[in-house]
Design goal:
rod-shaped, 2 domains, six-stranded mixed sheet, 361 residues, Rossmann fold, alpha/beta, two-stranded antiparallel sheet
């Protein structure tokens, strides 16, 4: 229990002391009057009352009434137990490869179109989790930080079109995607007020990398050290397929060729994606292997284990009552009881009066 104004408690103590002193003084005067009228026995015979007795009941009732009013004036209120902590928020970043190799047609219609479809299916399954969206090729492009507004992420996902790819990018840099995805999650965690839950990064790519695999291993180790699980989903086939870039604003379309002028062929490199996921504590799935995709969805959707706080305070049942109001009502009842001490009812005699009558007789 706490008080808004503790100083009123001292005022209440003074008021209670004055009440007790007044009742005591009143009793002293009554005893002097009884002595003047001939003593206790004579007064009981004449007035049917005892002026010499100390009215402890009156002192107690008025004293408690004064104390109740003083405590009520100090505005007491129950100390509320701390509210339960908000449940931790799980976050997922979907990272889609938009390099030129994702325009290969070994997957109908293209690898990129299939990657966008897989990302949309994952987004629909992640209800209640914060989901972000990132694109990458030779560098990364953050489209949306992790958010509960999945409709906004779905809107941005529909804008991932083939004209985003460039024939001049250095290929898929998975290490850049991993490091920037982890950085996006950490930036959101530092600004969040809710407890941090699980953090996951899902890479959807073909593994046709333009960097050394050692750089990918280092990025995966850094992600694992940061507590981020990295899952990988492969799109494409090992036999590969030719690439054709669509024409767009400030971009010439047409087939992608190699240095000799021949049609370039991109092949999916599944071992790269599999090793990345294993190094970062995640799972790997091929986009066409529904069983493996289901395992990744289950790992993303499965709720995190809830740790129950030991000894969580429970609000007592009496804490729902308003203390100042209750104390004010108690003071009024005590004053009413004090006023009835000298009341007499027709045909009724109090046990105290009967005992005194027997003493006189």
């Amino acid at each position: 229990m706490t008080f808004t104004d503790v100083s009123l408690l001292w005022l209440g103590a003074t008021l209670t002391a004055l009440i007790v002193l007044g009742v005591w003084s009143h009793g002293t005067r009554r005893r002097k009057l009884a002595t003047f009228l001939g003593g206790r026995r004579a007064l009981v015979r004449l007035a049917r009352t005892d002026l010499s007795g100390l009215r402890l009941g009156r002192v107690l009732l008025l004293g408690l009434a004064g104390a109740s009013l003083a405590v009520a004036a100090a505005d007491p209120h129950w100390v509320e137990p701390p509210p339960p902590e908000a449940p931790p928020v799980d976050r997922v970043v979907l990272a889609i490869d938009v390099s030129a190799s994702m325009q290969a047609t070994d997957v109908v219609p293209t690898r990129l179109a299939r990657a966008v479809q897989v990302a949309g299916e994952l987004l629909a399954a992640l209800e209640g989790q914060e989901v972000g969206l990132m694109l990458f090729a030779g560098t990364s492009y953050a489209l949306a930080p992790p958010t509960l507004d999945h409709s906004a992420v779905a809107f941005l996902l529909r804008g991932v079109v083939p004209t985003m790819a460039s024939a001049y990018d250095p290929g898929t840099l998975l290490s850049v995607a991993v490091r920037d995805g982890v950085a996006m999650l950490e930036a959101v965690d530092s600004a969040a007020t809710a407890p941090v839950g699980r953090r996951r990064l899902v890479l959807i790519a073909d593994g046709d990398i333009g960097e050394a695999e050692a750089a990918i291993v280092d990025a995966a180790a850094a992600a694992s050290a940061a507590g981020v699980d990295v899952h990988a989903i492969g799109v494409g086939t090992e036999r590969g397929g030719p690439m054709s870039l669509p024409a767009g604003t400030y971009q010439l379309g047409g087939p992608v060729t190699n240095a000799a002028g021949a049609r370039a062929v991109s092949r999916m490199r599944e071992p790269v994606l599999r090793d990345l996921a294993r190094s970062a504590g995640g799972l790997y799935a091929h986009a066409e292997a529904e069983g493996d995709l289901a395992a990744i969805r289950e790992a993303l959707v499965a709720p995190a284990p809830v740790v129950q706080a030991p000894g969580a305070p429970v609000r007592p049942p009496w804490a729902r009552y308003d203390l100042p109001f209750t104390l004010g009502i108690a003071a009024l009842i005590l004053i009413l009881m004090e006023s009835l001490l000298d009341a007499s009812f027709p045909g009724l005699r109090s046990p105290r009066a009967l005992s005194r009558a027997r003493e006189v007789a």
